[in-house]
Every structure is written in structure tokens, then in C-alpha cells.
């Protein structure tokens, strides 16, 4: 089974750090991307697919107009992947999904909303090295030439200059992971990764179901959420750190001082 429910804080850490040993490096360096969700029933669905309608046309219109109206210095380079990363960062619906290198950051997002403490949370864990073995030859060659397990926006820009380029790649139906440009402290502090699918209409959870060797889903039961949340706060894994600025500070203080059982109050 790819889904495992944990019963304690210690078991949660054990499951998330499982298979971290990298024999080639002789270090605990896993090839895992983590994504936390406060409701385990939520699919790995992108913001663009949630809009509905003709996703391919919507994506092109949204990105074209974002590029048209955004300030010219919004991106470091005028490339598809820089624009997609910045657009996603600022809330534009895209084909990208947020991930992190950090199990603790994923735990945060599984327990950040106290109004969801009556629902089981979950942390998805995906082996991006194994996922990248299914990429088209052009992209695997880019990784091999760079000697890297992950893409950067510069690497992707050298091979995929447009959404049309992505559509034409074979075999279709693949997933890639890349590190976004460090446009602000939020991306840096969240140890961020982004995933993309070659088909903007696709759902990653359905893709993963057909490839059980690439992933696992660690369930965080509702009754464990308060303990996980309090211990993350003690470890300084909070909105104040992950969302630097007054908004993150306010979110942390509001959650931190909300009485237990008072999550619905404003």
C-alpha cells in the first residue's frame, strides 16, 4: 500500500525520513519532494484545472496577459519558466504544483489551518529521480549534461522555450520537477520545488496511481494534528518564517493565540 497512517509524532518523522540514505554519496540525501495538504481527500490538482473549461486555451491567455501587464523587471529573464514561476508565486492559475525539499515544511502545510483540524491531513512524497527516468530524451539529456537530478529554470528554458514545445514532446504524459528562481525569501525559506506535467489537464495523483513505485502518501490523523502543530511551532517552523513579512507574522500570531476548539472564530 502506498498510503500509511501514522499514530505519533515520532512515527510521522520516521515515515517521512524513510529511505533517506544515499549509498552513492554515503549521506542521508533523499531524492524526495514533499507536499503537505490539510485535507487528505484533496487531489493533486493544479490551480489551472480547477478553473474548468478549455484548460489549454485558458493557460495561454492567462500567461500571455500576465506577461503583458506585469512590470518588465518582474522576472530575471524573459523565458517561459521564469514567467510561469513568478506567475504561480503571485497566485495566477498555472499547471505548476508547489512542493518542498523539507518534510517539516510539508508538515506545516498539513497542519497550518486549524479550521481543518477535524480532517485527516496528508503528506505526499515523490521520488523525483525515478519520475525523471520517464521524461523525454531531450529532457533527460539536459539533466545528464548538467549532472543534476533536478531542473533549474535556465535548464528548462534551453530545451522548452514555449508551451507548444512541451506539447510536442514524446512520450507524452510526463512529470518534471524544478527549483524555482529565488525571487523572494518565501521561496528560499520554504525550500521550494515545483512540478509540471506535460498535459495541463492532467492530475498528478492519477498519474502516480499508475506508477506505485514512485510515491507514498503519509496520512496525518486529525487527532494528531495539535501535537504536530505545537511541536512545529516550538521548532520555529511557522508562518513567520515561511512567509516573511507582516502577513506571515499576523497569520502566525492569529493561529498561535487561537484557543483550542476555537478555530472557527475570527
Describe this structure in words.
This protein is α+β, with helices and mostly antiparallel strands and 266 residues long. It has one domain. The chain has 14 helices and 10 strands. It has helices at residues 9-16, 47-51, 55-69, 80-89, 103-111, 128-132, 137-146, 153-159, 163-167, 185-189, 204-209, 225-234, 239-242, 246-256, and strands at 3-5, 21-22, 27-28, 32-37, 97-100, 121-127, 151-152, 175-179, 192-197, 215-220. A 4-stranded mixed β-sheet has the order 1-10-6-4. Strands 5-9-8-7 form a 4-stranded mixed β-sheet. A two-stranded antiparallel ribbon has the order 2-3. The longest helix is centred in the first third of the chain and has 15 residues, at 55-69. The radius of gyration is 19 Å and the shape is globular. The relative contact order is 0.18. The mean pLDDT is 94.
Give short descriptive properties of this protein.
41% helix, 266 residues, four-stranded mixed sheet, 10 strands, alpha+beta
Biggest sheet: strand arrangement: 1-10-6-4
Count of extended strands: 10
Give the radius of gyration.
19 Å
Q: How does the overall form come out from the CA principal axes? A: globular
Domain count, please report it: 1
Task: Output the helix-strand order.
Answer: EHEEEHHHEHEHHEHHEHEHEHHH
Share of β-strand residues: 15-25%
The major sheet is characterized as: 4 strands, mixed
Which range best describes the helical content: under 10%, 10-25%, 25-40%, 40-55%, 55-70% or over 70%? 40-55%
- Low-confidence region ranges: none
Mean pLDDT: 94
Q: Give the count of helical stretches.
A: 14
Task: Give the N-to-C terminal Cα separation.
Answer: 40 Å
How does the helix and strand content classify structurally? alpha+beta
Amino acid at each position: 500500500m502506498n498510503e500509511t497512517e501514522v499514530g505519533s509524532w515520532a512515527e510521522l518523522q520516521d515515515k517521512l525520513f524513510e529511505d533517506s540514505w544515499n549509498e552513492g554519496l554515503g549521506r542521508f540525501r533523499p531524492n524526495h519532494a514533499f507536499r503537505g495538504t490539510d485535507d487528505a481527500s484533496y487531489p493533486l490538482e493544479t490551480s489551472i484545472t480547477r478553473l474548468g473549461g478549455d484548460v489549454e486555451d485558458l493557460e495561454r491567455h492567462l500567461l500571455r496577459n500576465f506577461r503583458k501587464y506585469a512590470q518588465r523587471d518582474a522576472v530575471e529573464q524573459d523565458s517561459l519558466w521564469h514567467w510561469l514561476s513568478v506567475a504561480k508565486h503571485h497566485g495566477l492559475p498555472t499547471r505548476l504544483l508547489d512542493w518542498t525539499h523539507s518534510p517539516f515544511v510539508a508538515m506545516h502545510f498539513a497542519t497550518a489551518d486549524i479550521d481543518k483540524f477535524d480532517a485527516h491531513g496528508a503528506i505526499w512524497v515523490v521520488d523525483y529521480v525515478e519520475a525523471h527516468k520517464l521524461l523525454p530524451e531531450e529532457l533527460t539529456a539536459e539533466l545528464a549534461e548538467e549532472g543534476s537530478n533536478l531542473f533549474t529554470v535556465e535548464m528548462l528554458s534551453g530545451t522548452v522555450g514555449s508551451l507548444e514545445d512541451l506539447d510536442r514532446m514524446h512520450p507524452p504524459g510526463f512529470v518534471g520537477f524544478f527549483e524555482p528562481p529565488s525571487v523572494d525569501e518565501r521561496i528560499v525559506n520554504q525550500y521550494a520545488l515545483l512540478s509540471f506535467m506535460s498535459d495541463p489537464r492532467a492530475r498528478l495523483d492519477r498519474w502516480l496511481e499508475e506508477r506505485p513505485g514512485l510515491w507514498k502518501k503519509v496520512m496525518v490523523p486529525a487527532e494528531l494534528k495539535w501535537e504536530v502543530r505545537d511541536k512545529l511551532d516550538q521548532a520555529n517552523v511557522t508562518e513567520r518564517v515561511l512567509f516573511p513579512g507582516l502577513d506571515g507574522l499576523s497569520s502566525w500570531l492569529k493561529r498561535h493565540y487561537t484557543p483550542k476548539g476555537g478555530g472557527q472564530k475570527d
